[in-house]
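Question thread 4412

I'm putting together a teaching handout and wanted feedback from people who do this every day. The idea is simple: show students a protein as raw sequence, then show them the structure tokens that encode its fold, then repeat with a second protein so they can compare. Below is the first pair exactly as I plan to print it.
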Amino acid sequence: MADARSLTDLFGILGPRRVGETASVVDTSVTHVTEVSYPTQALQKFLRCLHGADNPLILDLGPVVGSNVTFFGEQLGCRIRVEDVAGDIDKHVKEGKLEQLPEFFTGRFTQEPGSVDGILCWDILDYLDRPAAQALATALCRLLKPEGCLLGLFSTADTPGQVYTKYVVVDESTLRYRTYPGLRQRQRSLLNGDIIKLFKDLRVTDSFLMKSKLREMLFRKPAPRA
């Protein structure tokens, strides 16, 4: 049976839906799931970065969202590989091995260096301490092709409770996020300088501080100098 790490090459048949820019919240007392829709600016830039690539490969740090696979397949004709990094974190929490996360991330990904066109990092770095975040960021930088793009989201507010966030693409201008239970709280909010140091091999092309209290950042890997 294929798992979340299997390589997916899908082209959706359902068009993306459009919602208004006003945030809408749904809180169900049974599942304790919160859904919020809000505008995004960096996603449009991410798509433009990849539009010229031939059969691009996107690495999504998860979890699996079927409608996202459909969206990116339609927009870019791309391949998507999903890696559930939140699941990796929870496994280390359960086993009492959080201190081993830096070493784990160093060898976590099996793709060849310089083989990935785009990375959807989402907000997963918010749940890591500095050594683990640096190990993951370094591994992601190594995977990117020259001129490849990485999209990262970083919270600027403290979020209580142990919940992760599942980001659902509504269209190129709108994201919806859903919280779901996890075993790891967000760590200290990263400052701009901290984020730039994590991705020292990349350059920041765009940074947006959103009303949703998220900072959206788009990074690009420079081409080698002649």
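The second pair follows. I'd like the answer to focus on this one:
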Amino acid sequence: MIPGMSPHLLTASLLLSAYLLGSVSGSLLLGRLRGVDIRQHGSGNAGGTNAFRTLGWKFALAVAAFDIGKGVLATWLALRLAPVGQPLDAAAHGYLAATAAILGHVWPLWHGFRGGKGAATAVGGLLVLWPLAVPPLLLAWVLVLTATGYVGLATVVAGACLPLLAWWSDAEPARLWFCIGIGLYLLFTHRSNLQRLREGTESRFERARLLHKLVRGQQR
């Protein structure tokens, strides 16, 4: 807690700071260094998948690391500086700050409220709040991606696994509701991907379909 600041003002400041941190888009910031606005290319989204399509895997990896990092930082600061002895404990501040950072990523103040879809920033928050959840979610993501080649579908499925994992582990209410919110939020931000899947026009990474190719190879 910061000495001399009222608890309510400190809570508001932490959440505002988390949103502003989330508003710093990795793909747009790093893209500007290369003279590219990836929103003018590919799908028009400022997320990691379009970063990969636009400027390759090295750029996409840097973007993912940046966006995960800001989720980590926003959540950690809220846990570290949260006021004590208040109805909202430190954990609640962490969940709220992670949510604010995700909102900032999707609707960034600094970039005309046109950002990414929030998955990497959500992972950053989870790495601080519930790190044990990240490996099974990553496994689900990899399995769906290597089976189908659809990044958006893999992200939605991994997000759907999060509340199930929280329920199965008998998580406390704050964690459970956070996980439900993240699952629904990823479903919302990837609604255009799901629509294209239904229409058969969604872009597919054929090189990522390793599991699909392995199964087909064994069937021959």
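Top answer:
Good format. For the second protein you could add a caption like this: The CA atoms of residues 65 and 144 lie 22 Å apart. The chain has two domains: 1-129, 131-220.
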